[in-house]
């Protein structure tokens, strides 16, 4: 470890010394029509054949010893811009690129985008927001996670669910960031949709291997989602009306070219549509409903050329409920009663960011955040009695709740001394408050309230990191870094030192090989219940009894650019330790038992091969992906201590996602997926137990024997989705219609399997399916 630290220190010192007598050109790269930051825009100098790339806030820095440069600024979907300038001192150049609509077919070169074979990173995929919006959507509702599930190495849990299982990991092992703030439950509608409204998003990046040192706290992936900043030029809006939800987004300047805002809202209306039907069927006595909503907001203020402030907020909730009300009369006393039960869950996050350009080579970002995730299961009963001499109200309520609250601060620095080095360093502190499952009840008919369950737990998580993305030779480039993290909880202090290294070697101008080795640590766990994706999962910290999760991952890949198509093949091997899972028979409802007594601790491993061909520009764009993988887990107290397939282990996965802009105002898209069946546990033998006296005697209970956990496989899963859109420009903006078909050939895919009996009394396995063919429509407008 000391040698690694010494290498990083010498690299930074050498890079700093080499700054002497150099001139730096820096600034921002933004959308000319909205002033929105262009993340990952390319800067290329044809004279020196070196360049730079813009960061998450559009900032770039390019240092040269030449007195004249010929710079190309480019970004996918935008018109490139060329500047030839003479420089004798540090210069600030802010560039605005014009959206190009549909790019013609071009030969990809270093001038117009950052080729996949050039960059050091591997296991990282960016998907243009335009492609996300054009692909077919379940019930017409565009969903970022549904698109991420189509990528190699990423799997969904069950039919329709929005959970992500990346390279053999669980959903708790994904670091899901919205403007830099972790989101603990990213699901709506019991897991069928995610919390991300595509209309409010600027950029989506998935990292599933070769993790840079600046990320930490999870084992399997990083999903980094950046919200739009708001249009600084003019007021604009867009919205849509679909089968189950509608949404609207408004953005514009508060002070032109100085301060902007964006606000985006989305809500389902299943409860509103069903209300009159249910009321008519129950004489108005019953109400059953479900809805979710999202609200995104952001304010962006330019203080001066070197300072910018952002304030972003997200709030979202789901609620499923049933209400029953009625009355009865007894001895002239009328009793009106109302009973409501249901569940609700949701997130609230807010982030305050300060961008500071310290100098032309050093950029800083300071972030202060608060986030909250909660889950409530509730039942409220109220009865009011009125009559001669009687006016009395009785109430009773019970509630099961869990959640997590975070307060955090973070400082990130980017130092770019010259085109051969890109140095990042920083640190953060998070104060966690866990509520891992509490039952509370109260009534005005008894004294005092009743509370059962685990006590709140307070923990502190902290980290420091440093990394350098540097050119060793003209062909060899590496990203070397270190991530240190610690976790203080219940008198226990865990520490973890995590070296990270990724290297790229250019075979020729269009081809490279890459390799990476990373270690990761995760100090929080998710206790997951099998089932329909109900948000009853509990977030709990590492304790003196239950340690952190740890992982190591090695990967090797081949990358090539060929006529506008990015080709990649990555093989990986990952080991995981400190995994937890409920013991057989234990659930979150055992509130009288400490959660630490209900879990088993084990290990896991996953290895596989991922192939991807991706095309981001042209009339036809999209990707074709294939994954071969094997994921197993082992717990001493489960499955007799033997290795067993992970529930979401799939040997083969194929995905095809294509869009075709075949006319100026029409496009067509399709998605086809295939996956071998998930692993399920089914009994292999059954026995009759001892005779019981229950129900008058003579009854013998059935005992089922499971040979091993996850010993059977579901049938293979496959489906075809289609979408067709056409739009028309109007005097006030644009209107667009989209027709879609989910599961076009009506494949009855397995949702879960169960044991039943046929008419002859013989045992059989029954498959239950969820979605048949589902047509959808959406009307979208912009102004």
Automatic annotation (TrEMBL):
TonB-dependent receptor-like beta-barrel domain location: 282-743
UniProt-annotated location(s): Cell outer membrane
InterPro entries per the UniProt record, alphabetical: Beta-barrel_TonB, Beta-barrel_TonB_sf, CarboxyPept-like_regulatory, Plug_dom, Plug_dom_sf, TonB-dep_rcpt-like
Domain of life: Bacteria
UniProt xrefs under SUPFAM superfamilies: Carboxypeptidase regulatory domain-like, Porins
One family name in Pfam for this protein: TonB_dep_Rec_b-barrel
TM ranges: none
This protein's UniProt keywords: Cell outer membrane, Membrane, Receptor, Signal, TonB box, Transmembrane, Transmembrane beta strand, Transport
Bilayer topology term: Multi-pass membrane protein
Domain TonB-dependent receptor plug: 141-218
PANTHER family, sorted: HEMOGLOBIN AND HEMOGLOBIN-HAPTOGLOBIN-BINDING PROTEIN 1-RELATED (PTHR30069:SF29), TONB-DEPENDENT OUTER MEMBRANE RECEPTOR (PTHR30069)
Family note: Belongs to the TonB-dependent receptor family.
Name of the protein described by the UniProt record: TonB-dependent receptor domain-containing protein
Organism for this UniProt entry: Belliella kenyensis
């Amino acid at each position: 470890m000391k040698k690694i630290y010494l290498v990083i220190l010498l690299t930074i010192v050498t890079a700093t010394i080499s700054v002497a007598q150099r001139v730096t050109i820096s600034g921002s790269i933004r959308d000319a029509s909205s002033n929105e930051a262009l993340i990952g825009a390319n800067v290329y100098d044809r004279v020196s054949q070196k360049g730079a790339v813009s960061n998450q806030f559009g900032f770039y820095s390019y240092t040269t010893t030449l007195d004249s440069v010929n710079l190309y600024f480019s970004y996918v979907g935008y018109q490139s811009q060329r500047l030839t300038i003479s420089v004798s001192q540090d210069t600030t150049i802010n560039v605005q690129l014009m959206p190009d609509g549909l790019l013609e077919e071009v030969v990809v070169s270093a001038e117009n985008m950052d080729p996949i074979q050039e960059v050091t990173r591997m296991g990282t995929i960016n998907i243009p927001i335009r492609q996300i919006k054009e692909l077919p959507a379940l019930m017409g509702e565009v969903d970022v996670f549904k698109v991420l599930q189509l990528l190699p190495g990423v799997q969904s849990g069950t039919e329709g669910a929005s959970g992500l299982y990346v390279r053999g990991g669980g959903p708790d092992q994904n670091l899901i960031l919205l403007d830099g703030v972790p989101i603990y439950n990213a699901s709506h509608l019991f897991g069928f949709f995610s919390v991300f409204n595509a209309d409010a998003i600027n950029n989506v990046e998935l990292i599933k291997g070769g993790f840079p040192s600046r990320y930490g706290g999870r084992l399997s992936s990083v999903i980094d989602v950046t919200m739009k900043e708001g249009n600084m030029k003019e007021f604009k809006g867009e919205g849509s009306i679909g089968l189950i939800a509608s949404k609207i987004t408004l953005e514009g300047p508060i002070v032109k070219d100085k301060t902007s805002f964006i606000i985006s809202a989305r809500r389902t209306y299943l409860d509103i549509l069903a209300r009159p039907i249910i009321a008519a069927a129950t004489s108005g006595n019953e109400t059953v409903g479900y809805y979710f909503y999202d609200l995104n907001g952001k304010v962006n203020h330019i203080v001066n050329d070197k300072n910018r402030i952002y304030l972003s907020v997200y709030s979202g909730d789901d609620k499923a409920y049933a209400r029953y009300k009625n009355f009865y009369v007894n001895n002239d006393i009328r009793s009106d009663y109302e009973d409501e039960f249901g569940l609700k869950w949701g997130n609230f996050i807010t982030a305050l960011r300060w961008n500071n350009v310290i100098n032309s080579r050093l950029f800083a970002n300071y972030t202060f955040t608060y986030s909250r995730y909660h889950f409530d299961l509730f039942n409220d009963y109220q009865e009011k009695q009125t009559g001669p001499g009687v006016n009395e109200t009785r109430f009773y309520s019970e509630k099961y709740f869990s959640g997590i609250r975070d307060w955090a601060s973070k400082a990130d620095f980017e130092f770019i001394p010259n085109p051969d080095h890109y140095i990042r360093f920083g640190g953060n502190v998070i104060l966690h408050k866990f509520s891992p499952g509490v039952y509370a009840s109260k009534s005005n008919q008894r004294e005092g309230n009743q509370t059962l369950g685990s006590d709140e737990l307070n923990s502190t998580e902290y980290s420091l990191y440093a990394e350098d993305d540097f050119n060793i030779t003209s062909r060899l480039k590496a990203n070397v870094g270190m991530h240190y993290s610690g976790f203080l909880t219940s008198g226990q202090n865990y520490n973890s030192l995590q070296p990270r290294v990724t290297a790229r070697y250019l075979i020729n101008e269009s081809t490279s090989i890459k390799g990476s080795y990373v270690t990761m640590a995760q100090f929080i766990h998710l206790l997951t219940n099998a089932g329909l994706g109900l948000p009853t999962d509990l977030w709990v910290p590492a304790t003196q009894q239950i340690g952190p999760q740890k992982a190591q991952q090695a990967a090797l890949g081949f990358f090539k650019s060929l006529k506008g198509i990015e080709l990649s093949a990555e093989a990986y091997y990952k080991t995981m330790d400190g995994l937890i899972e409920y013991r057989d028979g234990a659930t979150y409802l055992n509130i009288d038992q400490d959660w630490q007594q209900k879990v088993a601790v084990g290990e896991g491993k996953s290895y596989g091969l991922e192939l991807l061909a991706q095309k981001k520009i042209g009339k036809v764009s999209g990707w074709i992906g294939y994954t071969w993988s094997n994921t197993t887990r082992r717990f001493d107290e489960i499955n007799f201590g033997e290795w067993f397939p992970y529930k979401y282990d799939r040997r083969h996965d194929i995905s095809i996602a294509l869009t075709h802009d075949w006319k100026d105002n029409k496009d067509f898209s399709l998605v086809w997926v295939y996956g071998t069946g998930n692993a399920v546990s089914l009994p292999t033998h059954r026995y009759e137990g001892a005779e019981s006296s229950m129900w008058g005697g003579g009854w013998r209970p059935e005992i089922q024997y499971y040979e091993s956990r996850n010993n059977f496989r579901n049938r293979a899963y496959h489906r075809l989705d289609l979408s067709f859109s056409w739009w028309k420009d109007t005097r006030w903006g644009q209107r667009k219609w989209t027709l879609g078909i989910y599961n076009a050939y009506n494949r009855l895919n397995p949702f879960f399997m169960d044991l039943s009996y046929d008419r002859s009394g013989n045992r059989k396995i029954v498959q239950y399916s969820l979605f048949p063919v589902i047509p959808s429509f959406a009307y979208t407008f912009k102004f």
